Amino acid sequence: GSNNLQGYAPICVAHEDFYVRRLYLRIQDCFGRPITSAPDAWFDVVERYSNDNNKTLKRTTNISRCLNLGSYNYLGFAAADEYCTPRVIESLRKYSPSTCSSRVDAGTTALHNELEKCVADFVGKPAAIVFGMGYVTNSAILPVLIGKGGLIISDSLNHNSIVNGARGSGATIRVFQHNTPSHLEEVLREQLAEGQPRTHRPWKKIMVIVEGIYSMEGDLCKLPEIIAICKKYKAYIYLDEAHSIGAVGKTGKGVCELLGVDTADVDIMMGTFTKSFGSCGGYIAGSKELIQYLKYTCPAHLYATSISPPAAEQIKSSIKVILGEDGSNRGPQKLAQIRENSNFFRSELQKMGFEVIGDDDSPVVPIMLYNPAKIPAFSRECLKQNVAVVMVAFPATPLLLARVRVCISASHTKEDLVKALKVFDQVGDLVGIKYFPAEPDKE
Ligand code: PMP
């Protein structure tokens, strides 16, 4: 029960110890298994090691067709799609895989300009700028938006790309307790009051950074309360919607739509195309002046090769489907499906006695394991039954807060989810991670 770091860290580094090395190897084996097909509801996974009667670890190259509960393919666009894929192939023929140039040189195609307009309209902001990678969007933009003399107040569980961007900015960083508006207010008061006369504001700029849906927790940002505090203390708000844009809200427009927040109240809207749109890259959306400023100053715009044209086309086409502009009702159906799937899966797990964290409607469904030593067994036993799960552990989470992070997709069928629940039920008993009593079956 005491400081967990001290309890576990030596296990990871004591490579000499035979048993410890085996445990470490098995934990490693749960991560980075090669995949040999598209990240659809089912995909092909290479089993790199097999466990030979608990004695030796043998390298194998078996490929299993597994139910995919790990990819962020929220709306199912990452696999061949009847509307997007033909357009993506066409754009590949027309533009090639790469522009081989940065946006300001020869890397802006008509497609890039159309995409930025399409993204701005979709998220509800006057303008947008796109980048080739979601991670870089955070880590390269934050240092352009704020620097020395500025104050960043960051949610304690913000993604690593935000942490890196904040550190690289040179601004002072303070952290508030995860998704706790009252603590955010406390930090703001402290920072504004610290040794200053009441008329003097000690920071050039204050920026509060939050996520729409937290990637490891699956909970929704308490955005309305946080916005009210930002307004009261005149702080800018930066919202990372990597996991919420396209995935939640009546028409897929993210947490603002879901929680009834006016997008005019969010100064900087960031998101990635790697989750709901089945593509890659990231965006910043905001006022025309902000986006213009970023286009003149952001190194990732000036010096990095622009987003790949087929990836850009994939985003544009998937947004059209979400909005129902492809002439079908598939977009709205996908949105209804992901919501139904997420809520069904979450509530069934809870009935079985698992400790599931996060909020309803969120496609990120984390199941707590706590002890990292349970990771290999859970992952391996699920894989044996053709269910592939993503395990999340230190350093992505605190050391003794290991978890299975299920990502639900609109392309999972009811049968897929029922299969996963059956497997989790058995493996949960085997590994001992049902921390609550199961609900009795109702008549
Ligand atoms: N922000 C958040 C909240 C994320 O979870 C991620 C990655 N999962 C990123 C940014 C980085 O995005 P990408 O994977 O598209 O580079």
From TrEMBL:
Give the family, as the similarity comment puts it: Belongs to the class-II pyridoxal-phosphate-dependent aminotransferase family.
Matching entries from PANTHER family are given as:
CLASS II AMINOTRANSFERASE/8-AMINO-7-OXONONANOATE SYNTHASE, SERINE C-PALMITOYLTRANSFERASE
Which Gene Ontology BP terms does the record give? Answer: ceramide biosynthetic process; sphingosine biosynthetic process
Gene Ontology terms, MF aspect: pyridoxal phosphate binding; serine C-palmitoyltransferase activity
| Keywords from the named record | Acyltransferase, Lipid metabolism, Membrane, Pyridoxal phosphate, Sphingolipid metabolism, Transferase, Transmembrane, Transmembrane helix
Which pathway does it take part in? Lipid metabolism; sphingolipid metabolism; Sphingolipid metabolism
Q: How does it sit in the membrane?
A: Single-pass membrane protein
Record-given protein name:
Aminotransferase class I/classII large domain-containing protein
Where found in the cell?
Endoplasmic reticulum membrane
Q: Which cofactor does it need?
A: pyridoxal 5'-phosphate
What does UniProt list as this organism's lineage?
Eukaryota, Viridiplantae, Streptophyta, Embryophyta, Tracheophyta
- Residue ranges of the Aminotransferase class I/classII large domain? 66-422
Q: What is its main location?
A: endoplasmic reticulum
